[in-house]
Design a protein that fits this description.
alpha+beta; FAD/NAD(P)-binding domain; Flavocytochrome C3, Chain A, domain 1; about 30% helix; globular; FAD-dep_OxRdtase_2_FAD-bd; KsdD_DH; flavoprotein; Succ_DH/fumarate_Rdtase_cat_sf; FAD-binding dehydrogenase
Length: about 550
């Protein structure tokens, strides 16, 4: 029997970015909204807080100032070439993809700009693709960093939510874990669950699950915005698709444990349909955080394209599996090696110019809007967070000679697995292609081409040089772990954000947004993401679901 009963017009499950957007949009429509989250209030904003704050925009002023010519037609070619929709279940994801592209090329930037969001002037070129014009990848730079990173994306919605809370239009109930969506005659009419003991756990850390009571919320509309499954490695392995090989035995966690996917089967029990559960987005460039926030905390390297990528046995990855090009293509290749890790081999010159770490806490200059600290990136030496990982991180090997480097790789990896003569042969062959302006090494050709983009030449791509040139040393090897991150499938929704039953009919009163909905439709990105699309998908689907629920 519930010892707490709450009534509202709209109930939002999840206080992350998608949930916040849905809540404020519904409140703007004059509805009384209650927002539930199993975490304490210090975790308001969910995963968006930890993000780098990159957004996918098309034809922006920032692109034009950097000399990038983009268009909705080119973005559509890239999106659908990456998504590779091929299932009957892709009907709504396709429509969501079209709608999101219109949003990204249309009002998205102006909508955010009107709420005070500002962008770093250099547009990043993420996920450069598989080498095919009509295949996966971004043909042009589209990764727009928000000034303030993830917290900067959240700020206007937190501000709006708090204003609504002050006016008693939004009520936050933290430490409320939903265990059931209540239905009557097939319609969602509320939720039930457990009240958890208060917790002073810091954001991202385990907050405990001791139950102290029960609750029920009665509402005319329920919005599921509870996130994905990346913190639940058992579920990740169960959903792992055969096309990507066998599931890894060991992974690092790119999200906290509370990203557990538990609301997906709960919504299914209420009549909703989950589709494309085998579509997921995990990175191959994960580092074990030397200063972790949550258990098994992983940080992703955002690499420039110069590092030489070797598998665990010291063999170079084939073209076009270069750093920053094709995430899932690389993951599939590496799973076939039988090992859960791989290596970057690079120089000090490369790490200073090309290495960045994903996450708001790893970019204090951008997160804190600190111009003086930002200017330090232009001075010699790697950024302070990179140097800290190089000094303290268990995945880094730094050496004066190649022999010492390989010795360290075998110490950090597995004894005797990497051969110094074999690695030397790979590096010397690659270095021979640097000696003149011509050559057949595809990675070197890409390096030279990408440096024609002003943003890459200024802050992202080192001048091509020989890896074994001691003037660019010391040599560095970085062990790369598989890092869990995003769920690309989810609850199937129509273009109003309404959850659909297996019959294709809407479940009355039930909506979904954000990662729980595959960022829209149950998987609007298909098989591959173009980066900057996760936060953007939360913004767009949260806005759609909030406005629909509010109506």
């Amino acid at each position: 029997m519930a010892d707490q009963t709450v009534q509202a017009d709209v109930c939002v499950v999840g206080a992350g970015l998608a949930g916040l957007v849905a809540a404020v949009e519904a409140a703007d429509a004059g509805r009384e909204v209650v927002v539930l989250d199993q975490e304490p209030p210090q975790s308001l904003g969910g995963q968006a807080h930890w993000s780098l704050g990159g957004l996918f925009l098309v034809g922006s002023p920032e692109q034009r100032r950097m000399g990038v010519r983009d268009s909705l037609a080119l973005a559509r070619q890239d999106w659908f070439g990456s998504a590779q929709f091929d299932r009957p279940e892709d009907y709504w994801p396709r429509l969501w993809a079209e709608a999101y592209l219109d949003f990204a090329a249309g009002e998205k930037r102006a909508w955010l700009h009107g709420m005070g969001v500002r962008f770093f002037p250099v547009v990043g070129w993420a996920e450069r693709g598989d080498g095919r014009a009509d295949g996966h990848g971004n043909s042009v730079p589209r990764f727009h960093l928000v000034w303030g990173t993830g917290p900067g994306v959240l700020a206007p919605f937190v501000r709006r939510a708090r204003a609504h809370a002050d006016a008693a239009r939004i009520r936050f109930l933290f430490r409320h874990r939903v265990d059931e969506v209540v239905t009557h005659d097939g319609a969602a009419t509320g939720v039930r669950g457990a009240r958890l003991a208060p917790s002073d756990a810091e954001r991202g850390t385990a907050s405990g699950r001791r139950v102290v009571g029960e609750f029920e919320v009665e509402a005319g509309a329920i919005v599921i915005a509870s996130g994905g499954v990346g913190g639940n490695h058992d579920m990740v392995r169960r959903l792992w698709p055969e096309r990507l090989g066998t599931p890894p035995r060991t992974m690092v966690a790119g999200v906290p444990a509370h990203v557990d996917g538990r609301m997906l089967p709960i919504a299914e029990a209420a009549g909703a349909r989950v589709i494309n559960g085998d579509r997921m987005w995990h990175y191959t460039e994960g580092l074990r955080n030397w200063n972790p926030v949550w258990e098994n905390h992983g940080i992703r390297i955002l690499p420039g394209p110069s590092s030489v990528w070797l598998d665990a046995l010291g063999r170079r990855l084939p073209a076009p599996l270069f750093p920053g090009f094709d995430t899932l293509g690389t993951l599939k290749h590496l799973r076939a090696t039988g090992y859960d890790y791989s290596w970057f081999v690079l120089t000090q010159s490369i790490i200073e110019k090309e290495f960045a770490l994903s996450g708001s806490e790893q970019n204090p200059d951008l997160t804190g809007k600190d111009f003086r600290l930002l200017a330090s990136r232009l001075r010699p030496g790697a950024a302070a967070p990179i140097e800290a990982f190089k000094e303290h991180g268990e995945d880094f090997v730094v050496a004066r000679t190649l022999g010492e480097l390989v010795e360290g790789m075998n110490r950090v990896g597995e004894p005797g697995l990497v051969s110094e003569p074999a690695v030397r042969a790979v590096l010397e062959a690659r270095d021979a292609e640097i000696e003149n302006a011509f050559g057949k090494d595809a990675q070197v050709t890409f390096l030279r081409a990408h440096r024609k983009y002003l943003g890459d030449r200024l802050i992202r791509v080192a001048a091509p040089h020989r890896i074994l040139d001691p003037r660019h040393g010391p040599l560095i090897a970085v062990r790369l772990n598989i890092l869990t991150r995003k769920t690309l499938g989810g609850l199937e929704t129509d273009l109003s954000g309404r959850c659909l039953a297996p019959s294709g009919r809407p479940v009355p009163g039930l909506f979904a947004a954000g990662e729980a909905a595959g960022f829209g439709g149950g998987g609007m990105m298909g098989y591959n993401a173009l980066e900057g699309t996760f936060l953007g998908g939360c913004l767009f689907s949260g806005r759609v679901a909030g406005r629909s629920a509010g109506a």
